[in-house]
Specification:
- By secondary structure, this protein is an alpha/beta fold.
- The protein has 10 helices and 17 strands.
- The protein has 2 domains: 230 residues, Alpha-Beta Complex (Spore Coat Polysaccharide Biosynthesis Protein SpsA, Chain A); 76 residues, no CATH class.
- The protein has a 5-stranded mixed beta barrel. A 4-stranded mixed sheet has the order 12-14-16-17, covered by helices on one side.
- Helix 1 links the parallel strand 1 and strand 2.
- It is globular.
- The two termini are 25 Å apart.
Length: 316
């Protein structure tokens, strides 16, 4: 929130799940109540961003503002460059309103968990260039080849577009989802929560890329390396942002002991002593009622694994 506060609270909206609305209000009391967009169900980024767009379209009417859809779990080390970039992109979209802009970064490592795009971006953060090729979550071998070859960039998960362009994109490329999210929006607006939930249950669980954006033609990449961006939604990135010992081990509390161990992350609440002996390259996350242990190079799969496990009543 602090990163975008310079644009004014009247221009900031937060999209979250219904059950977190109270938490958002408590953490952001300065945010107007109607600036919290409450999704009834978790359906991945595709229906989520379609619903967000439908709500904004009803609020703005005939206006056509630039919308920057920004994940909340990102780390941006250079907030000043981030704001400058959004202003540059907004100015570009006023000239080219049919385009959508994807902020991109040079991949620091092989990580199949991202969408990768090829674009002829110059060695400058201000560069904008058409996206030539698009690969969503490649396998590890292909990802390694793309990262090594250069010219491929990782998508940050952010999208910047004109509101009416986003509406038209969903209407044309995902009409069934668009119609459903509009019904959900309208049902919630008149207090018909049961009907809205019933409609929301019909929404597919699908990413925004698979739903619409990979099919949209006028995509432009923006080189965002100067932001010092990282996806904090990935445990490997969380580890890199934390303080390490001399053998690259990191822990969220001081009750962890590393013995002949290297390059591990232990994450959990204080109160439980953890001893790691002779292990390397592990992510260990203690959530109290369950424990996650995986190799760092497999941590990009945790999201999909968590979805599978949640079907059996557990959530990572």
């Amino acid at each position: 929130f602090a990163r975008v506060a310079t644009f004014g609270v009247e221009n900031i909206f937060v999209t979250t799940n219904m059950r977190y609305v109270g938490l958002v209000r408590a953490q952001l009391p300065q945010l107007p109540a109607d600036h919290i967009i409450a999704e009834p169900l978790k359906r991945n980024t595709g229906p989520g961003m379609a619903f967000e767009t439908a709500v904004l379209a009803s609020l703005f009417g005939e206006e056509n503002p630039v919308i920057a859809s920004i994940p909340s779990d990102d780390f941006v080390g250079n907030a000043e460059q981030f704001v400058i970039a959004l202003e540059q992109i907004a100015a570009y979209l006023e000239r080219e309103p049919e385009h959508i802009v994807l902020p991109l970064v040079t991949p620091a490592a092989v990580d199949p968990g991202y969408t990768y795009v090829r674009a002829a971006l110059a060695e400058t953060d201000a560069a904008l260039a058409p996206i030539i090729e698009w690969v969503e979550k490649p396998d590890t071998e292909l990802c390694g080849q793309m990262v090594a070859s250069g010219g491929w960039f990782a998508h940050t998960g952010m999208y910047v577009w004109k509101l009416k362009t986003a509406v038209a994109m969903f209407q044309q490329l995902a009409p069934q989802v668009w119609n459903l999210v509009c019904r959900v929006r309208d049902g919630l607006a008149v207090g018909n929560t049961d009907a809205a939930m019933q409609q929301a249950n019909e929404l597919p669980i699908i990413s925004i890329e698979s739903l619409a954006t990979k099919l949209y033609g006028a995509k432009v990449g923006y080189r965002a390396d100067a932001w010092n961006w990282s996806d904090v939604g990935k445990w490997a990135v969380v580890k890199e942002l934390m303080q390490h010992d001399e053998k690259s081990n990191a822990s969220s509390h001081n009750e962890t002991h590393f013995i002949n161990a290297r390059n591990n992350l232990v994450y959990g609440k204080p109160g439980k002593r953890v001893v790691c002996v002779g292990v390397a390259d592990l992510i260990i996350v203690d959530r109290g009622d369950h424990l996650l242990v995986c190799r760092i190079d497999e941590s990009h799969n945790i999201g999909s694994i968590a979805e599978q496990i949640s079907k059996f009543g557990a959530v990572l």
